[in-house]
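Example for tutorial group B:
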C-alpha cells in the first residue's frame, strides 16, 4: 500500500495509513497519513481566533502526529508550517503563522517528541493552497502542515 508501515506489521496492508501504537490500527487510514514527504492530517489544527492558542478539539489530530513521529524514528526532522489567509495585515499574519507553528512544536514536545526533530516556520498568506476568493477557500488556507525535511536514507 506504499505507506511507511511494513506489511508484516500493517493491520491494513491494502490501504495506506500511518503508524499507530494500537496494533489493530497500525498502518490503517486514520487522522494522519505519511505521503510524499508530508505527514498529511485529515483534520485541521484549530486555534483561538487571532491567537496561537491551540483549541482542545485539535488534541486528537496532534496526538496522531505525535504517535506517528514516535513510531517513525526514520523521520529525523519535520518542518511544522503555519499558514494564514490574506485577510488583515500581511505582517501580522506572518507573525501569527510563526507563533502558531511554534505552538504546535511546543505541543508536540510536551507530548514526547524531541525538539531537535522539529522546526517551526510561519508563511502567513504567502503560500495559499487555493485563491482567497471566498470564505471556504480562506478557511482552507488557514492551516498547519508537517513536511518531512530529513527522512532516513
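The residue assignment follows.
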Amino acid at each position: 500500500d506504499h505507506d511507511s508501515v511494513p506489511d508484516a506489521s500493517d493491520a491494513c496492508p491494502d490501504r495506506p495509513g500511518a503508524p499507530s501504537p494500537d496494533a489493530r490500527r497500525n498502518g490503517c487510514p486514520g487522522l494522519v497519513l505519511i505521503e510524499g514527504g508530508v505527514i498529511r492530517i485529515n483534520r485541521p489544527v484549530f486555534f483561538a481566533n487571532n491567537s496561537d492558542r491551540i483549541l482542545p478539539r485539535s488534541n486528537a489530530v496532534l496526538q496522531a502526529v505525535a504517535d506517528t513521529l514516535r513510531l517513525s524514528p526514520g523521520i529525523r526532522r519535520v518542518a511544522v508550517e503555519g499558514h494564514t489567509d490574506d485577510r488583515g495585515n500581511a505582517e501580522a499574519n506572518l507573525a501569527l503563522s510563526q507563533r502558531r507553528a511554534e505552538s504546535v512544536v511546543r505541543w508536540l514536545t510536551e507530548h514526547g517528541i524531541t525538539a531537535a526533530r522539529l522546526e517551526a516556520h510561519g508563511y502567513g498568506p504567502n503560500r495559499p493552497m487555493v485563491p482567497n476568493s471566498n470564505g471556504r477557500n480562506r478557511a482552507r488556507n488557514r492551516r498547519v502542515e508537517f513536511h518531512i525535511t530529513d527522512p532516513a536514507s
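The radius of gyration is 16 Å. Compare this with the pattern of hydrophobic and polar residues in the output above.
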